[in-house]
Amino acid sequence: MPTPIKIIAFPGAPNLPVFAALQEGFFLEQGLDVSIETTPSSVYQIQQFHAGVFDIAFTAFDNIVAYQEGQGAVALDGGSDFRVIMGATQIELSAIFHSSIHSSQEIRGKSLALDAVGTGFAFVFYAMLEELGLGRNDYLPVAVGATPERWQSVKDGQHIGTITIEPFTSIAKAAGFQVFRQSSQTFSAYQGGIVAARASWLTQHAKHAQGFIRGYLKGLAWTLDPNNRSQASELLLAKMPDIKPGVISAVMASLLSARSGLTPDGKVLLEGMKTVVELRKKYGTGSLDSSQLDQYLDLSHYQQVIHEG
pTM above 0.70? Predict the structure, then answer.
């Protein structure tokens, strides 16, 4: 009987390696019955992950830092024992604005949709807006939820801008919305998405954690294989019907780029992690040290799998 493992992830194209691993049976080969659920917000994800409803979280690296440092959006009973077990993606974050907005000056005094106002992707947005000449008091950030909810709120005219990942960036551009800035223009490296587990779960499930990593890495390799490009595109279209055939090429190009998408071999990006910590130091609270990253990581299971070849 396969062992069940439940994943909670943000909606988006970066989930494609998981979809591939499920389709191709790579998790079942490891004796695992893996399921994936997408979250409506980072707060919901973290609360459910902390409570043990889910075993694995595909989340932002900043969430791991924030909750371990006691700076999260909500308090967690007993504190956080989240650990990064593998890298996932740099993530190309895009500052998009309603089609009626044509310059950064038109953003002044208006509201912008965010997942939460004090998380890492919000900090990226603030940094990009700063490069556009806007200070923190020039606009109103509003907590709305994950990317689908944020995109819908901008499309409906409730807010004039937000930050998106693929496929929502390409969907927005196809609908005539403006992209004023992208994270790759602002940062040379940014650790966006990671795979996390609780330290307490890892202690009891080392074998399952390693099996999950093996299955995911096979799904990642399948996704990145140029011979599977057509099948991968069809799979993403099937799993995310909001993506239209006209934008799938742009979505896949961003997703498959080592500069702005999935991280080859599931590696963590130490320079990108330092960027995340430095942004939290600048826009968040507390005293952080970007040279002390080990406290957020447990790469022992990943290294064991890689060592096996």
Answer: yes
Under CATH, domain 3-91+190-308 is a member of which superfamily? Periplasmic binding protein-like II (3.40.190.10)
Closest CA to 247 of 191, 186, 164: 164
Look up residue 32 and give its DSSP letter.
Answer: E
pLDDT in tens, the chain (309 residues): 999 999 999 999 999 999 999 999 999 999 999 999 999 999 999 999 999 999 999 999 999 999 999 898 899 999 899 999 999 998 889 999 999 999 999 999 999 999 989 888 999 999 999 999 999 999 999 999 989 999 999 999 999 999 998 999 999 999 999 999 999 899 989 999 999 999 999 999 999 999 999 999 999 999 999 999 999 999 999 999 888 888 999 999 999 998 889 999 999 999 999 999 999 999 987 678 888 999 999 999 999 999 997
Query: Quick one: fold of 94-186?
Result: D-Maltodextrin-Binding Protein; domain 2 (3.40.190)
Q: Which of 296, 299, 305 is nearest to 221 (CA)?
A: 305
Closest CA to 160 of 94, 91, 92, 108: 108
Q: Which of 109, 10, 110, 26 is nearest to 60 (CA)?
A: 10
| Residues 277 and 104: beta-carbon distance below 8 Å | no
Radius of gyration of the chain (CA): 19
Query: What DSSP letter does each residue of 154-182 carry, written as one string?
Result: HHTTSSSEEEE-TTHHHHHHHTT-EEEEE
For residue 79, the SS3 value is coil
Instruction: Break the chain into its structural domains and give their ranges.
Output: 3-91+190-308, 94-186
Which spans in the chain are helix H?
Answer: 16-24, 42-50, 61-68, 120-131, 147-155, 168-174, 183-186, 199-204, 206-224, 229-239, 248-255, 270-283, 300-308
> Given the DSSP bridges, would you call strands 193-198 and 56-60 parallel, antiparallel or unpaired?
antiparallel
For helices 61-68 and 270-283, give the axis angle rounded to 10 degrees. Answer: 50
Q: What does residue 110 show for φ and ψ, rounded to 5 degrees?
A: -110, 165
